[in-house]
Amino acid sequence: MADASRPSARPKETGWTLMYFVLGLVKEEQAPPDRTLGIEAAAANPAAFPSLAETIEHLTRESFDDRFTFGVDLILTGRSPGRFGT
């Protein structure tokens, strides 16, 4: 991580950010089918949580592998590989 392509790479911070990202996705992936993040998000009040309401389709449509790859690339390089899911 110290050799990341970003000139301001901060290996310690990048390391723990990556660790928590991975732990969060693992926890989500291992959730019981009736307690997935998409189901939890859909149950939230859209008036109280409008930004969450806008992400429901993304949370239920994209695969864990796609979201994992996108997130790791964003954390390690500071940029996304393009439009998500394409």
Task: Provide a compact summary of the structure.
The chain is mainly α.
Describe this structure in words.
By secondary structure, the chain is mostly helical. It is built from four helices and no strands. Helix 1 (11-29) runs antiparallel to helix 4 and helix 2 runs antiparallel to helix 3.
Keywords:
86 residues, 0% strand, single chain, 4 helices, mainly alpha
Order of helices and strands: HHHH
Percent range of helical residues: 55-70%
Q: N-to-C terminal Cα separation, in Å?
A: 26 Å
What is the β-strand count?
Answer: 0
Give the uncertain stretches in residue-range form: none
Strand content: under 5%
Q: Biggest β-sheet: count, sense, barrel? A: none
Q: What is the overall pLDDT average?
A: 78
Map the helices and strands.
Blueprint: H1 11-29, H2 37-43, H3 50-61, H4 64-77
